[in-house]
Amino acid sequence: MHRWWRDAVIYQVYVRSFLDSTGDGIGDLAGVRAGLPYLKKLGVDGIWLSPFYPSPQHDHGYDVADYRDVDPVFGDLDEFDRLMAAARRLGIRVLLDIVPNHCSSHHPWFRKALAAPPGSPERARFHFADGRGPDGAEPPNNWHAMFGGPAWTRITEADGRPGQWYLHMFTPDQPDWNWRDPEIAAEFDRVLRFWLDRGVDGFRIDVAAGLYKHPELPDSDDPEADARTRDSVNPLAWNQPEVHDVWRHWRSVCEEYAARDGSERLLVGEVSVPTAREHARYVRPDELHQAFFFDLLSAPWDADAFRKVIAEAMQDIAGTGSTVTWVLNNHDQVRTVTRYGEPTPEGSGLGPARARAAALLMLALPGAAYIYQGEELGLPEVVDLPDDVLTDPIFRRTGSRARIRDGCRVPLPWSGQASPFGFTPGAESAKPWLPQPDYFAEYATDRALADTRSFWHLYRDGLQLRAALDQLGEGELRWLDSPPDVLAFVRGDGLVCAVNFGTSPTSAPVPGTPLLASGPCPAGILPGSTAAWWINDL
Question: Among 68, 127, 142, 286, which is most buried by a count of CB atoms within 10 Å?
């Protein structure tokens, strides 16, 4: 059986912002299909599609009202089938984003739960509980939601009286499923099979360390932890031991399909846990194939910090028999160019050089890699969106712009000198759903393809070499002694990756002309904030 996922490079398509085919200012599945040749030229192995299911879009599709259909704003099931057929012709794998921790408050099962009485089977599908204090006016426990505010909302019962509370670890529009009710597991089994029968290659699993909550729903010792960090740190709400039973069952479903045609279906989890060792529990041979390793994304720009997280991942995660799943960005994070250097809106400063070097480092590491759309263009974060266009529920819930995610979700620029930069067709089309800044003209895809010095060519050349060289992809690495601020390791038979995390040039740890460098790299010298690959006989 071909284990394609072990060293695959997957491109995350944020559908709303990729390419609009209808002129309504919102990207759609037909736009994704039109962009597939671009992705084939870039050289990725597959794509991960953000949620496109029917949804009121309170959290841009992560509030799912129907798990087995397409929201009309993105197309329909026939268009999805056309996208799948086009991807097959081009040899591009397709992963869907599945959201099993919570649904939309518009989901039919939640509507039935609101209409049903306390203690009913309909309410057992969710976490409904009586309140505390006089007349039940206080939430059942002290947990806070990750997007701000309490994790509980009180409902009005059918007779008009104040009633029970329901749990939502994100927003009130996203009630959490109660996975202790067997109906939930059975329903998601049907959902998986619906999409696997349509030919998908696997699933990216949202909030994969969630699903189960402590059965007694007790108070937390640090109730504001999730809201403060916007991470899964409440041990009563996340990373419960029963969640591993879910992944064992889902793995068995995927293996059933793989047995039919010899190609594995991939499960890759969004797993937020404190240590690489806990992370490794999710990728044991009978659970998830992979889980995103976010420690590289969150590491400061420092050689020792990068070496530490890489070494821990190789020891704890690769040690399970899985491969590490490296990421530098996604739809929830500040774009790499901005995160690494606080550049000006035009992209100057250290950020671009560091982002290029980090990309080359990631592509040289053993395992799989995920690229968020626009990173291959070097797009910076849009940091000056006006308040009246912000759509992130974090902003709506807290009133704060801190850690909001709209800035990395601005629609891609494809061509031209002014918005919509080819994102949406026709002179009479609607404006993009988030405004694109004028300076996006410098990052447009047509310019990137024409400029051999661009981010796009660095990514494309790196992906071509990764596919052509036996030393890259799956395997191990061996660290090299190197000067201060330089990280260097060997892959396979003599391929060296070296990164200078400093700002000054240094003698390279190995001599010779680089195969590929993230910036100007004369023989024997590695400029600051530069990465390079060499082939040497070591």
Answer: 127
